[in-house]
Amino acid sequence: VASGRRAGAARAVPGAGTLRGRKRGRDGLRGGIAHRAGDAPVGLIEDGGGEAADIALLARALGAMRLRPADLYCFGDAPYFKTLSGAVTLTLLIRCMGALSIDPLEQGTPPDRGIAGLFGAIRRGAVTMLNAPGTAIAAAPEIAETMAQLLPALHRARFGAEDPLAEPSSPAHSGFAAPVAPANGEPSFGEGRLTLRLFAIRTGTAADDDEDVWKVLPGGLGLAETPDGIVHLKDVWVLDRGEEMARPSPGPVLPPPRRPPARAADLPSRVADDLFWLGRQVERLDYAARLTNVTLGFVADASTLPHEQIQRALLARSLARQGLISPDIAGQSVTTRLLRDALAGGRPLLDLVTETRRMLNATADRFSPTMLATIEAAWAPVNVAAARADTAALIPPIIGFATGFAGVIGEDASRSGGFLFVELGRRLERLFGLAGSLAVLLDAAPSRMAPGLTLAIDLIDAALTYDRLNGGPLAPGPALDLLLAAADYPRSLAFQADALAAGFDRLDTGAEAEEARAIAGVARQAAADAARPTEALEAIADRARILSDRLTDTLFAPLPGVQHVDEEGGP
Predict the structure, then answer these.
(1) Cα–Cα–Cα angle for 357, 360, 364, nearest 5°?
(2) DSSP bridge partners of 193
(3) How far apart are CA 545 and CA 434, in angstroms?
(4) CA distance 535 to 454
(5) Pairing verdict, β 42-46 and 72-73
(6) Backbone φ and ψ of 417, nearest 5°
(7) Distance from C-alpha of 536 to C-alpha of 520, rounded to nearest angstrom
(8) Distance between CA 166 and CA 162 in Å, rounded?
(9) Predicted confidence band at 484 (pLDDT cuts at 50, 70, 90)?
(10) Is residue 498 pLDDT above 50, yes or no?
(11) Using an 8 Å Cβ cutoff, are 195 and 227 in contact?
């Protein structure tokens, strides 16, 4: 689309020439902001009220870190935000939120709408806000006429000549889109005659504080009024004919300052928390769909044979443990019809779909456009099936989406950046969910374990793998090795624990890595003993839950809210 617009613009402009690129101007602006921030990161604060896609593009273009008001705290002089490795001070902020809700201590807004004490930090010079409250006053319609009168004098003082475009607009059009540059009349042919219509171009400028040089960025926004009174907005492209501009040269683009490489631990704790729970939620949805799929396949062709009655009871207990059916119907006397009716309508799956969509929306800005497009394409069939509220129709698109999501994270995501927390969440949820279900399905002596083993092998989709490796009828020893101890099967318990330990190693959290390795040891020992592994599996599920709580408490927990204290020391 962009290249097509460029080509169309080039054909529409008379004369030869090429379009002047905006990269140099954008790089100059980004380099200037980075130099002004120094070693500290650049923070872009938003309150969720703007267009998420536009804010994400702006943050990437400026090299800024997106932050919410709840991420920032003003203890002492400068504001800081909590990361997984400690507090990071901010010295430069860009505002993408309303000016009236920045500091609740001084503006009287709700405490959760802004950053308490930020105005004080700005006044002390501890932090600079590039577009501080009041910077939009030049575009206010009330002072448009005054600005139109001042601009010629400012242009003459700066460049020593009158700006030919700086002619005051007519009073009737003084409020036209609040243009900073005054609007001019341009000839327009309509209704068989030439008329004078309003026309204005709004451009952007960037400054280098070190050299006091301003540069007009190539291109801008054109505003034109058609004969019918409708105002149109169009992109304006600038032709580069190789001519030298009369303005001062902007000089070389400043390279960004050399900073240490970003680590996963440098992420804001809220972002890491959201990514972690995104990984867990996707795996929770996938596991629920797989367990429901095994159950529906079983009840579709079930009989009253004793071993099938045992399998029906095991499935009901597993579904109840995962919250997919009520525990009240998970007794030994559960019937095929009762199990089918409990799963009809897909309500538990629909709730998981809703929560997964919420987490995807909360973390969409962390994905590149290509990654996000791939994920959204995989999610589209889930939306279609969810509208039907049919359990059987929901299962294939959910499993397809989870597979596509895992592929994006595995192939396109950084192994040491924010997506590390998605991987940690995925592995921890697989470990927790599978251990809990296996504790139910394998709760029997080895001689009576066959019904549960068959369901467990189907649950992790390992029937073909087992036949290829072992062949013959299902045996407890080889089956438990595949379920619990296999280091090369991506859905075994030991594989999840080993992958979890590797992730903690990249995060440089030694205690959590050792705990994950200990869990892998418990899984392998349970496979080796092969005698009623339920107790070991329950211990694995408990340790996985404790490990998740530890991460939440130590890494992701928010700081306590700021309280204002008056001069007398009272609350």
Answers:
(1) 145
(2) 190
(3) 12
(4) 20
(5) unpaired
(6) -95, -150
(7) 11
(8) 8
(9) very high
(10) yes
(11) yes
Distances (CA, A) of 330 to 88, 308, 442: 51, 15, 16
Token couple for 48:
């969720």
Q: Position of tokens 């920032």?
A: 72
pLDDT at 532: 77
Q: Which residue has the higher pLDDT, 285 or 468?
A: 285
Region 483-504: mean pLDDT is 92
Say if residue 433 is exposed, middle or buried (CB neighbours under 10 Å; 0-12, 13-18, 19+): buried
**Mean pLDDT of all residues in 510-517:** 92
| Half-sphere exposure at residue 370, Cβ-oriented, CA atoms within 13 angstroms | 6
CA 55 centroid distance within chain: 12
- Give dist(CA 236, CA 394) in Å, integer: 47
Backbone φ, ψ for residue 497 (5° rounding): -65, -40
Helix (H, G, I), strand (E, B) or coil at 67: strand
Q: Which residue has the higher pLDDT, 293 or 308?
A: 293
What's phi and psi for 114, nearest 5 deg? -150, -165
* Torsion angle, alpha carbons of 145, 146, 152, 154, to 10: -150
Of the two residues 323 and 1, the one the predictor is more confident about is: 323
- The single-letter code of the amino acid at 275 is L
d(CA 304, CA 309): 6
189 burial level (CB within 10 Å; 0-12, 13-18, 19+): exposed
Cβ-contact 392, 345 below 8 angstroms: no
pTM of the model: 0.69
Nearest-10 crossing angle of helices 336-343, 269-299: 140
- pLDDT at residue 82 in the model: 77
The residues near 54 (Cβ < 8 Å, ≥ 6 apart) are none
**Average pLDDT of the residues in 39-47:** 85
Phi/psi region, residue 346 (left: phi>0; alpha: psi -120 to 50; beta: rest), is left
Beta bridge partners of 194: 189
Tell me the two tokens of residue 50.
């703007």
> What is the mean pLDDT of the segment spanning 471-475?
82
